[in-house]
Structure formats: structure tokens, C-alpha cells
Write a structure and sequence with these properties.
Layout: E1 3-11, E2 14-21, E3 29-38, H1 41-49, E4 51-52, E5 55-56, E6 66-74, E7 86-89, E8 92-93, H2 99-102, E9 113-114, E10 127-131, E11 135-137, H3 144-162, E12 170-174, H4 178-189, E13 194-198, H5 202-210, E14 215-217, H6 224-231, E15 236-241, H7 246-255, E16 256-264, H8 277-283, E17 286-289, H9 297-305, E18 317-320, H10 324-333, E19 341-344
Parallel strand pairs: 12-13, 12-15, 13-14, 15-16, 16-17, 18-19
Antiparallel strand pairs: 1-2, 3-6, 3-10, 3-19, 4-5, 6-7, 7-11, 8-9
Helix pairs in contact: 3-4, 3-9
Length: 346
């Protein structure tokens, strides 16, 4: 069997390359020639710390879970795809038989096997075998780079869907990093009339405006409550909190309209927050959380194909596969400047 080029972690802050056999797709799988992979915040956490909570990297470990590519071979029984189809890969393989899978909440499956989540390796490599049911065919006008970006976009769509986003609403997004930006895009694609955003970094605020924010606030330069309430005196119908910052989550409760909804997306560093729940109760707010996404890849892809979303707008840096060691180093060292990097594998 021919070999493929694979990038792997040698340890914290270490990236190397090696050759491995190209995988053979099993029944129900397809072999995908990977063309693009996005660099996610979780990749950087593993690269810098070697772990996220109880998920611990044991080198050699392959990072990367945001992938787009071209079908190169079919496993037995696959009829939904053909060789040459361009696809976006949904990275989580679930058990299909637990209560969460059976109830349609498969993103909560306790036995999920998710790319680049130890001990499951990722897709910073030239080929990957993956279930055909999790490889979504891209329309002719959607590139494989955009296909790779469907994965983070799916988080934004799940947040917007969980918050029942729709026409007539005014929304606010805390944090204008990658997930904040895709949340803005998803809210706009869902028909939300006006979306506002906050972040401490000016380049991220500029990108928020680029992807459709009606206004932005830098909390380091202005009182966020005063400024945000000028745009929506009665409060915001929907707030998506992506920063994981306790103060931001508390401010979301203050800014939310009575009867409104807050969707918590970002993880706090400690995993804990102290919030003014009394205010939330007085307002009869609905507080929701999301974990990854479910059943949104087709709608996210269609929004890109229809032109309702220009997902390429979130990309700030492009690196070739050979540059991955330097790309990871820079993404870790320049978090304030590099909002979203993608790796050209092929």
C-alpha cells in the first residue's frame, strides 16, 4: 500500500512528519484525499499544554479535525458518494445505540470518536478513511477550503438554532474570535435583523463588522452595558457568549431583554462561573448551553452555497502542509493577530 505524509505531535510544542500507509476504507466508509484542514483552538490547547481536561496527548498524536477533501476510493456498500466528489467531513463518529444517539442528540454520545481528541488521532495528513454518512458532498460553487470551515461554522449554526434565532430579533455576541465570528454569520443567515459584538481586540472587531455585525464595542475602551443598551434600549432578544469569560456572561444577563435567551458556548478557564442568577430569574431568561453541534452540516453548507455566508471572510492566514510546525508555533504565539488559520494539505 502506498504511503502518505502525516504530521504528528512529538510532545508539547513539537511537530514532526512521517510516512504511514494510506488507510483502506472499510464497508460504509470512503477514503478522502484531504486538501484543507483548519487550525482549531483545541488543536492549540493540545499543542501548548498536551491536554484538555481529562483528554491527554500521548505522542505521536495527530492533530486537526476541520477537514475538506476529495473522495479517492469507496468502501463496500457506499452508494451516496462517488470517487471525485468533494466533501466536508463531520469529525465525530458516534455509537448510534445510546439514548442520546437514539433521541437525535448524537453530539452528547458518551462513546463518540472525534478527530484529534485523545486517543483518537486527527487529520493533519494526506488521506483519511471516514464513514460516508459523515462526508457531506459540496455543491459545485463551494470549495474544499470552505468545506473545512463548515466544522466551526456548524458550532455557530447550532448556537443560533439552540437560541431560536430568527427575523425580528436583535442579537449580541460576546467574543469575536473564530466561534464568535461564525456565530455572527449564522445569526445573519438565520434572518436576525441586527447583530452586535464585543471583543477587546480591534482586529477582531473589524472582522466582526466585515462578516455583518451592525456595531461593535471594545470593553477596554467603553462601558459595554451603556454602549450596548444604546443600540437596543429594551435589551437583546438573543445573546451568544463565546468568550468563556465570567464577567461577559454576567453582562449578558444584564443586557438580555426580559424573556430573552442566552446561549453559553465558551468554556471558562476554570470550568466554573458565578453569575447574577437573581437578575436572570427576575427577567425570566432562558439560559442554554451547547456542546459541538448536531444535524447542521447540510444547512451550513447550503448557506455557503446560496451566498448567505462568505465563510472565507474569517480566514486570516493560510499555510502549506510543510509549514505546519511554524504554523502551529505562530498560531500559539500570535493569538491576537491570527484569528483563523487553515492548512493547505494538497
Amino acid at each position: 500500500m502506498p504511503d502518505m505524509k502525516v504530521s504528528y505531535m512529538t510532545g508539547i510544542g513539537g511537530i514532526a512528519f512521517e510516512s504511514r500507509p494510506i488507510p483502506v476504507p472499510e464497508a460504509g466508509e470512503v477514503l478522502v484525499r484531504i486538501e484543507w484542514v483548519g487550525v482549531c483552538g483545541s488543536d492549540l490547547h493540545y499543542y501548548e499544554a498536551g491536554r484538555i481536561g481529562g483528554f491527554v496527548v500521548e505522542p505521536p498524536f495527530v492533530l486537526g479535525h476541520e477537514a475538506g477533501g476529495v473522495v479517492a476510493a469507496l468502501g463496500a456498500g457506499v452508494e451516496s458518494l462517488a470517487v471525485g466528489d468533494r466533501v466536508a467531513l463531520e469529525p465525530g463518529i458516534t455509537c448510534g445505540v445510546c439514548e442520546f444517539c437514539k433521541s437525535g442528540r448524537y453530539n452528547l454520545c458518551p462513546d463518540v470518536r472525534f478527530f484529534a481528541t485523545p486517543p483518537i488521532g486527527g487529520v493533519f495528513q494526506e488521506y483519511a478513511a471516514h464513514p460516508a454518512a459523515l462526508c457531506f458532498k459540496l455543491p459545485d460553487n463551494v470549495s474544499t477550503m470552505e468545506g473545512a470551515l463548515i466544522e466551526p461554522l456548524a458550532v455557530g449554526f447550532h448556537a443560533a438554532k439552540t437560541g431560536s434565532a430568527g427575523p425580528g430579533q436583535t442579537a449580541f455576541v460576546f467574543g469575536a474570535g473564530c466561534i464568535g465570528l461564525v456565530s455572527i454569520l449564522a445569526l445573519k443567515a438565520s434572518g436576525v435583523d441586527r447583530v452586535f459584538a464585543a471583543d477587546f481586540l480591534e482586529n477582531r472587531l473589524a472582522m466582526a463588522e466585515k462578516v455583518g455585525a451592525a456595531g461593535v464595542i471594545n470593553p477596554g475602551k467603553a462601558n459595554i452595558i451603556d454602549e450596548a443598551m444604546k443600540a437596543a434600549p429594551g435589551g437583546y432578544d438573543l445573546i451568544i457568549e463565546t468568550s468563556g469569560n465570567e464577567k461577559a456572561a454576567a453582562q449578558a444577563i444584564s443586557l438580555c431583554k426580559k424573556g430573552g435567551t442566552i446561549v453559553l458556548v465558551g468554556y471558562s478557564p476554570s470550568g466554573n462561573m458565578t453569575l447574577p442568577i437573581g437578575i436572570a430569574i427576575d427577567k425570566e431568561l432562558t439560559l442554554k448551553t451547547i456542546f459541538r453541534y448536531r444535524d447542521v452540516y447540510p444547512s451550513a453548507i447550503q448557506a455557503v452555497a446560496d451566498g448567505r455566508i462568505n465563510i472565507k471572510d474569517i480566514v486570516t492566514d493560510i499555510f502549506d502542509f510543510d509549514e505546519l510546525p511554524e504554523a502551529m508555533r505562530r498560531c500559539a504565539a500570535e493569538k491576537s493577530a491570527i484569528v483563523k488559520a487553515v492548512i493547505r494539505i494538497d
